[in-house]
Structure formats: C-alpha cells, structure tokens
Amino acid sequence: MDHLSATTSDRYRTRLFDSSRFHHLDPSTKNYRAEKDFFIDAFFRHRWYSGNHKRDGPSLLQAWNACIHNLEDVGRDAWNDKLIKARDKFEKRTPTGARYKLHRLSREKELLCLSWGDSCPCCVNNSARAPKEAYLPNSPWWRVRISTEMYEGIDNLKSFHDRAGKTFSGGPSAAQDVPRRTAQPDPVRRSSVGSGAPKYPRTGDSRATGRDNSSDVRSRRGGSTAAQPDRAGHRESPLMEVEEEGRRSPHDHVDRCVPESFFDRVTQGLSNDLEHERDRRLQLADAVLKYRAEFAFAQLENERSLTSLRDELRVARGNVDRSRNEIAALQTPVDIHHREHKALCEMRERKGVLHRKKQRTDGTA
C-alpha cells in the first residue's frame, strides 16, 4: 500500500501513475483521501474477482499501472461496469462469491447475516472462528465488527422470546438472562417421565386464587421470608419445591392424581399408533406376497430360457459332428490323389520308367 500510494517507488524503480487527477470517483466522497481509498479498494476488489491473488510488489505495481491505463482508455463508467460484471461472475462461479453475495443482499435488506458461533467473512476481520464472547457489544472493536442493525435485530428477537416465556439461548445479553416461569398452572409435568423423582402439579396459583405475592417480593428483596398460613398451595422457589417434595409422604399425593382425560388421551394415542402399525404390517405383508409371486414368475421364465438354450446347444453340437464326418469323408480321396501325384513325380525323376501293376486275382485294377 505504501508503494501504491506514492508517486514513485524507489525499491522497484517502477513509475507509478498518480490517480489524483481522477476526481469525483465516488459521488459520496468529499475529499481526495476518501477518493483514493475508494479507488484502491476497487482496484483490489477487481483483482480478487479476477482470481489474481498475488501480493508481491512487482505484480501489484504492474497491475496498478495497467488499471490506470484502462481507466484512461475506457473511462470511469465503463471501468465501473466491468467491475460489476466481474463481481457478478465471481459470485456465480465460486462458493466464496456466493457467501459475499449473501452478505451484501442481507445488508441491503437489513437482515442478519451472522449467526452465533459462525464467522462471516465480511463482518469479521480475522480468519479464525471467534468465540461467542467476541460477539458481545462490550468486546473490543478490533476483534469483530457488527453493525448496530444486527444488535437491534438481536434485541427484537430476545424480546419475542421473553414475551413467549422462553429463554433466549444466544445473543449479547444471554449470560444475564434468567429462565422465566409462566404464571399459568401446568396440569401435567411431562418431565417426570424422564427423571427419577415424580413431580406433581400445583394445587393453587396466586392469580387464580386472587392472593397477592407480596411476601415473595419481600423475600427476594431481603425482607421477611415467613410463609403466610393462607398460602399453603404456593411455592416460593424451585429449591423450596424440591425440599417439600422430599418431606412429603406418598400418601399426600393421592388427591393430586393426574386427571382421567390425560389417560384417555394417552390411551387414544397408543390405540392410534397400534392401528397405524397394524396397517403398516399388512401393507408389508402384501408387498412380500407380491414380490414372491414376481420372483416365482421370473424363475419360471429363466427355466424356460435355459431349456431353449440347452436344446439349441444340443442341435449345434450335432451339426458340428456331422460336419466333421463330412470333412473326414472328403479327406480320403484327397489323400489318394496326393499319393498318386507323388508317385508320378518319382517316375519322372527315374527317367520315365513306369512299373506295371500286377493284376489282382479278384479282377480289380
């Protein structure tokens, strides 16, 4: 950057063009320093989009001079259009470009582009995965850069969770959140199924009975912690609830049994599941019968094909044997003619002397 910002470079002895004559490069800039920073940023973005990641001095100087020449030839608007085309091509053909496009569109639509535990390449200036504490608003600004719009969105999401009575697991103030409990009575505690100690529903509520919870407020602020005699059904804290559950005998829970409607719902659900499994079993049995029939037909077709192939092989072998016999029958006269030809040749060599054959007694020649 030092070599690019200067007019000449003493180290590489390469002349650099001065970009100060290119005024009004960015309409939003007000001074020359901002214009030059914008121009240098556009130059490096063009190199990144083009896939040229060389960082050595001669390569940067040569590319800078070529960029200035190109600006002088085609003009600022045409060069800007080329930069936009290179960006679109980079975003379409590379995964990194797709992530940059997602970041750019998210910022244009004022949406969140960064999730907890992930590092956005445009929002975070370090390549390592930052811890969750780095995303807090009170963290140093050089570790991570998150816009105020993102913090406003996080606060809105947290308020939605708080209104729904749920705990906000992530966000800047996640460590300060306290799990809230809804004031509505819970008729059935399903957590007792997975835990060892059974839990039973409350018998009363402060809002349902019309009694205030001023003693709870005093106990939280350090006041009197004595329980009122008319508040037998109210529990002050989860710790007190656990202690009362340990001191209470099993006979005290007889009148706190689960309503019959719950058992009816469970029974109906199990019946539906059983009927569904029965239908599924029948479908599987039908499929097995169908596949068995198809397999039997396929085996029958294979046996027929094998029988026809065996018959054809038997006929072919008979034809081969017949051809061999015919060849042997034709070979005998050929051998006789060959012997006669050989005898004539020998007679010619012996000066034409031909020995007469003796007459056979059976009258054959």
Word description of this protein:
The chain is mainly alpha-helical and 365 residues long. Among the domains are: 1-93, no CATH class; 113-177, no CATH class; 261-354. The protein contains eleven helices and two strands. α2 crosses α4 and α4 (76-93) packs across α5 (95-108). The radius of gyration is 49 Å and the shape is flat. Residues 163-253 are annotated as: Disordered.
Which keywords apply here?
mainly alpha, 365 residues, flat, 2 strands, 11 helices, disordered N terminus
Structural class, by secondary structure, is: mainly alpha
The amount of beta strand, in percent, is under 5%
The 3D shape can be described as flat
Encode the helix/strand succession as letters. HEEHHHHHHHHHH
Poorly predicted residue ranges: 1-33, 124-145, 170-239, 253-258
Average of pLDDT: 63
- In terms of quaternary structure, the protein is single chain
Distance between the termini: 120 Å
Main sheet strand line-up: 1-2
Tally of helical runs: 11
- SS elements, strand count: 2
Outline the biggest β-sheet: 2 strands, antiparallel
Helix content: 55-70%
Compute the CA-based radius of gyration.
49 Å
Region (Disordered): 163-253
Biased composition (Basic and acidic residues): 202-219
Secondary-structure blueprint:
Elements: H1 2-5, E1 8-9, E2 14-15, H2 32-49, H3 57-74, H4 76-93, H5 95-108, H6 148-163, H7 191-194, H8 206-209, H9 214-220, H10 238-247, H11 260-349
Antiparallel strand pairs: 1-2
Region (Disordered): 163-253
Biased composition (Basic and acidic residues): 202-219
Please give a quick description of this structure.
The chain is built from 11 helices and 2 strands; from the N terminus they run H-E-E-H-H-H-H-H-H-H-H-H-H.
